Amino acid sequence: MILVSFCLLAGSAVFSADPGQGPLSPLQQSFSNSQASAWVKADSQVYPAGSQVGIGGGNFNAGETITLQVVHADGSPSTGYSPWTVTSFSDGSFRSSWELPTVETSGEVLQINASGSSSGLYAQSSFMAAPSLNLDQLHNGTMSSSPEWANGNINTTNSCYSEGNSVPFRYFVAGTGAGTQHSFVISMEWTKGGVHAYDYVTEYDQSEAAAIAAAGGPCGSPTTPPGDCATPVGSYPWPDFLLTSNYTGSIPSDFFTTVNPLFVLDGPGDLLFYNATIDSIGKMYFGGTPSDRTLNIPVYFTTTATGSVGIFWGGHLASGTSSSWGAGNGSASVGGAPYHMRVIDFDGGGGANQDRSIQNGSVCLPPAISLSCTPSDTLCEDSTYSCSVASGAGSYLWTVSGGTIASGQGTNSITYTVTASAGGIVTVAVTACNVASGCSTSFCCAVDTVNLAVEVCNLCPVASCPGDTSIYLCSPQQICIPGFSCSDANGNLVSCTAVGGTLTGSDICFTPTTSGVYTLKLIALDGDGCADTCETQVT
């Protein structure tokens, strides 16, 4: 093959001629217009910027040098792109290719000129530049594969996603020119087989910021982003997905707040972009069937610079939790065929759609947990309590703010001691994770948290008595045993009463009448009716 390279008016392109492959086949002669005069034609009428334009021609002299050049049909600039030459086959036909530069804007009409050097024959035809469109999704990696941007589907060999995560997407539009207005529709499979799949959109790095960084950032590879790809700095807020006023058309019977009036959204944050301004996000609408329903979000934008536009979002994987769709109705429970995120209807044309899928079984179902603490409302200073969740998860990690864990870390139940002062808060949190093959033990997790108030609690008074003792007397006389006391941490002591003797200071005195065992009892009572007793036996 002979490969000839030329400089362009802007950017660069590659042209090729390959006379060694012989005349055009009947299939390849679909270029031909069957006229006897010389002809040249592109193999399509519309090309996205950056794509290869197949060029063929015929009815020139055998083996003659033919000069090809692509120019703008409107003559501006008049010099066009640099010409190149090919040699015709024995039947007077030729074929070649040319790369449409990314600087060409959508709707630009380009003309191919072909001139025979010995025959003087001339032919021309035209084609149109169209935007280059591409949608990538993030494979967030496994224990044996690194995160990467890709066109391929998400599966268990390249990703570890769980319910509640957001799959990052990036959508590139090239060849539109500065100051032009465009639109597209984000179309996600909201339900698949009646189970919720992608339920709404979020900020693109909602859950996968670390994986995006590991994949080279928003402009990472191995799929090739535009040369001027940049970190998105513009933002536009997503509409509230729970408000029916943000939709047009029929609202399905399994709408967010119909299923769960207390439905909780994660975020959702903003739509991010570069080299553009978002003019608006249109009224959302549902399509498809009750079983396989789509949620569609129209986006309208204006380019701000020549070159590419990048638009970034996250597809939220529906959660089957009590705060969302309910057990068994989240994305990990979808069966059958893969479910999809699509970009459709660019500029209302319906064509150039982009489609990315996630394979059934690729989403992990986090453990179902509900944190239960005793007591469940208020705590006392310096006291010890317990919390637990259901067993069955692969791992448990507890944290206690305002307290210290006394026992049970790594299990489904702990005891902890309050360190926060009265008026403070103790926050108990547990992260329970399921283990999936090929994924880390911390990727498929559920988190639950409780906040418990610390109050000034009434502590019962304490009655203290000395140990039992024996006394030998020759004759009956008063005995005073020291070491008795009453105390109350709250300062709420109302009485300290001796039974079996008289309390004098810290002594209980009594007069035995005969030999034997005498029991001295001390009763401490506080203003809330709480009492404590102790006894000392004197022989």
Task: Summarize the structure in words.
With 539 residues, the chain is mainly β. Helices cover 2% and strands 45% of the residues. The chain is built from 2 helices and 43 strands. A hairpin with a 5-residue loop joins strand 9 (109-116) and strand 10. The longest helix has 6 residues, at 209-214. The N and C termini lie far apart (118 Å).
Give the tags.
539 residues; disordered N terminus; six-stranded antiparallel beta sheet; 2 helices; seven-stranded antiparallel beta sheet
Write the SSE topology.
Elements: E1 2-7, E2 12-17, E3 39-42, E4 46-48, E5 52-58, E6 65-72, E7 84-87, E8 94-99, E9 109-116, E10 122-130, E11 132-139, E12 148-150, E13 161-162, E14 166-174, E15 181-189, E16 191-192, E17 195-196, E18 198-202, H1 209-214, E19 234-237, H2 256-259, E20 270-274, E21 276-281, E22 285-288, E23 293-303, E24 309-317, E25 339-344, E26 354-358, E27 363-364, E28 372-374, E29 378-380, E30 384-388, E31 395-401, E32 403-407, E33 413-418, E34 425-434, E35 444-455, E36 462-464, E37 479-481, E38 485-487, E39 493-499, E40 502-504, E41 507-510, E42 518-526, E43 531-538
Give a brief outline of the structure.
The chain is 2% helix and 45% strand. It contains two helices and 43 strands.
Global outline? rod-shaped
Fraction of helical residues: under 10%
Distance between the termini: 118 Å
Biggest sheet record: 7 strands, antiparallel
Give the averaged pLDDT, no decimals. Answer: 89
Oligomer: single chain
Total helices: the number is: 2
Low-pLDDT residue intervals, each spanning 5 or more residues: 1-35
The secondary-structure class comes to mainly beta
- β-sheet strand percentage: over 45%
What's the gyration radius in Å?
A: 40 Å
Number of strands: 43
